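Re: beginner question about structure tokens

> Can someone show what the tokenized structure looks like for a real chain? I only ever see the sequence side.

Sure, here's an example I had lying around. Input first:
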Amino acid sequence: MAGTTTKTVQDIFQSMECGPATTSNTATAQAWLDNQSRTLGLFIDGKFVNLVDRETRSLVDSKGDLVCSTVCAVQDDILQCASSAIKGFESWSRLSCYQRSKVLLRLTSTLGQHGQTVAELCDLCQASCSSSSLVRLLQYYSGWAQLRDTLIANWTPLGVVLVVGSDECSFYSLMLKVLPALAMGNSVIVAPGLRTAPPALLLAQLFRSAGLPAGVLSVLTGTDMSLASDVAKNSSISYVTYSGNKQDAVKLCKATAGMGVPVCVSPNIGATCPIIIFESADINSAVDDVLETAFQKKKEVHWVLCVQESVLESVTARLRLRMAGLKCVALPSDDVRVLVDAAVQDAQNSGATLVQSCAVPSGTQYPPTLLCGAAPSSSCVVVPSPGPLLPLMTFRSNSEAVTLGNHSPHGQTACIWTEDLTLALETSKSLSVGSVWVNSRPFSDPCLPVSGHKDSGTCTDGGQEGLYQFLRPSSSSYVPPRASSVALDYAKFGTDAPPVIIPDETAGTLKSYSHFVAGKACKSESGASLVVHPQGGSSVLGYCPDGGQKDVRNAVEAAIKVQPGWMKKSPSARAQSIQSLAKGLEGKRQDIASSISTQTGLPMEEADSEVELSIARLRDWAAYCDKVHGGTLPVPQSGTGLSIPEALGVLGVVLPDKHLLLSMVTLLGAALASGNAIVMVPSQEYPLPALAFIQVLLSSDLPAGLVSIITGRRNQLTKALANHSVIKAIWYWGNSEGCQYLQYTCTSPLKTLRLFCQKDKDGKHCGGDWTHPSVLEELWRNAVQWKSVWIPTA
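And the corresponding structure tokens:
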């Protein structure tokens, strides 16, 4: 037709304008806040407690307008809340699984009526969490509440759980800890951050209206992390779990050190995570999701883009084209703008080039920016700023991609783009992260178990595996003795002078033992020794090495060389090696039983019985190797979800003073069966059984360095284990000072701790029943970390 112009499809798409942005309506949330007089009180014993004489803390929205004020709890409020939580736990735990599940399901229908209020309040407080995701959480965990005694038999709730969140923590992350704790039968005290406090208080009110007994869910608000440590001091608290940033996690760990309460942290804010694009990827889909993921308005993690060199030009060209229409992002303040400018300048000084959606305006607006050719050592990669910056690095080979992906000290999540399934699975297993998304942007679902790898925490959240942090074996009689932190000089811990050894006429006739490092028996690097006495006696049985920091360093260096190969061995191959240990122990049965009897004074019959139990325990671990290995997950989307248990790496274990051989082989078997290497410190008082076991290790087919036994002073070796950055976890049986030192020290990097104070306040020995079979499952779960892999399908 005359006067018409022909437009191509590309012209049409280029000229299309975005529709008007939807304006967020928060009228319902505002009405609820007005009903609370804009000052939110504490939620204790099933009702709001608003005290006019308390300090308050103000919350403002993104425009700087006041949203509400929250009351700051004091010691009297904490005492009242703890007392109510104990009563709530008693009533809640007495209910059947069906009754608890019914309450959680009832809240699901309540959310159907008030979900808009919850979603609006989360949006207003910038603690985004949709009502649909909350409904999914409730449905999932109500099912586990129903099936707890069926599928998780012989486990019991802990009691009163304290859930702590930082100011930046999302409401979803907070509920990912609150709801499973409730589902397992615990009562919960929530100490939320400033932005999650209003929705937490609203949800507590809704829970109460849905039939949750009074005291089962309480909310205490305050000014900072000091509130959480004050609540943790209360003897009614059985467990503390945290979600938020790393700085507050460290503060919480240090503040609660020595209190005798287990603390588990998930620093899920501010981690640096990789997006890896291989040459076999669907580039268009990858670029679309990169833009959606990296430049979203509110993000909890920082992304780094890693692109294979062969497709670099194609990826950057598409990014340049699609970034052209992106709008500037509002920065929180002028101070953040200074940080962003400094990061961009540093990247340019390191050779990076900029790709930006538009010219850089003044003020607190900044355009989405791609930093092409960023160096791995650049500050925008190592310590990323909070602005809309995406560093881009290149790699040549698949192994180099894994190296770049593991460059960050965090191990939270990663995205992989490739059409090669074999490459995707191999890369997923090689990355030290808790979750991997293949050809997909990250999404959250409660069925996905995710453990903190490297410096991303010590918790496993989600899935069945995430429930065990809120449970303990029914057969376990050990309860950590509650105490107050002592005035401990952390710098001087483990630096006491060794005891003086005065030689006498019998010195030349006594046996001098060696410890076991890097596959061979050797003396300590210091050349010093300790005297070995029988229990309660002053006679001398011999001399053992007095190991120290250099011995631990040698042991860990040997361990990291062989542990990856041991982890990759097939479960049946690991089982055969553990079976050979059992055979070796059986061959040395008489000698080791004699060492137990000589050292502890036990009759030979009892000593021989312990050797028999130890042989059986090693055979149990050999059988365990190929029995529990993750599986597929029922993700409510089209695709395949995998849960994979992985070895922690190198474990440091300070052995107990009771059941010397049985406890040692039980802990050794747990580490080896799950693919770990282990550095063991025998009892300082009774080292002979462990030293005798070295003969079994010398004749075994275990890789040299996989197992080390270092004797010496407990505090000195505990300090050496705590300060070694490679050791991922420490299992400790010792005194209260050692427990406090480990909790205070093992925060950078974070270590998984399993602490037992061997004597209670009355001086009686405690520390667990080593003869009960349930110890196997409990230890195995402490020896692995979980990874989720999500592979979508059309």
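Each token stands for a local structural state, so reading them left to right follows the chain. Confidence is low (pLDDT under 50) at residues 16-22.
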